[in-house]
Amino acid sequence: MEFQKTAFKDLIICTPKVFEDDRGYFYESFNAKSFQSFAGFEPEFVQDNQSQSTYGVLRGLHFQIGEFAQSKLVRVVEGEVLDVVVDLRKNEPTYKKAYSIRLSAENKKQLFVPKGMAHGFITLSDTATFIYKCDNYYNKESERGLAYNDPSLQIDWLLDKQDIILSEKDKENTMLADLPSNLF
């Protein structure tokens, strides 16, 4: 596994070493020891989630607060998405800034998203299967949402607005200026 730091503290791109032959391929999708050696900490994942989405579905930007805040290791096993995070950690130089990366079954890249970041993705292919590990359990009362189209974030979702499909819940997500500044 190769690891790459980003400008955002503890936001890490993970690219597996893929072994291919005429039978197919094999790769190690996570190794706690090698991650800890690179990052200096070892997440303890307790929950795995999976979703499938069709073209244009935008899920997010979601986060949990308080004792239920989550770090995530996200990847795509079918299709392609644009994965986006927004740093909500007030004491970080990247506070209120967005980061995006294409994740796909083809590139097999993963993104480690630390606690304190809102996270979302939009499906760029006909369908996409998205898998992620969490280091804390889902808690409905702790869940919050940040508006994907907040103009202060200047996120290019790569699709025209009319092609974006949101859940009713995500249509109600909050603008960044309306979030308390002491979330994390």
UniProtKB/TrEMBL annotation:
This is dTDP-4-dehydrorhamnose 3,5-epimerase. The keyword Cell division does not apply. CDD domains: cupin_RmlC. The gene is rfbC. Catalyzes the epimerization of the C3' and C5'positions of dTDP-6-deoxy-D-xylo-4-hexulose, forming dTDP-6-deoxy-L-lyxo-4-hexulose. Homodimer. Pathway: Carbohydrate biosynthesis; dTDP-L-rhamnose biosynthesis. It comes from Dokdonia genika. Its EC number is 5.1.3.13. Pfam families: dTDP_sugar_isom. One of its GO terms (molecular function) is dTDP-4-dehydrorhamnose 3,5-epimerase activity. It catalyses: dTDP-4-dehydro-6-deoxy-alpha-D-glucose = dTDP-4-dehydro-beta-L-rhamnose. Belongs to the dTDP-4-dehydrorhamnose 3,5-epimerase family. Keywords: Isomerase.
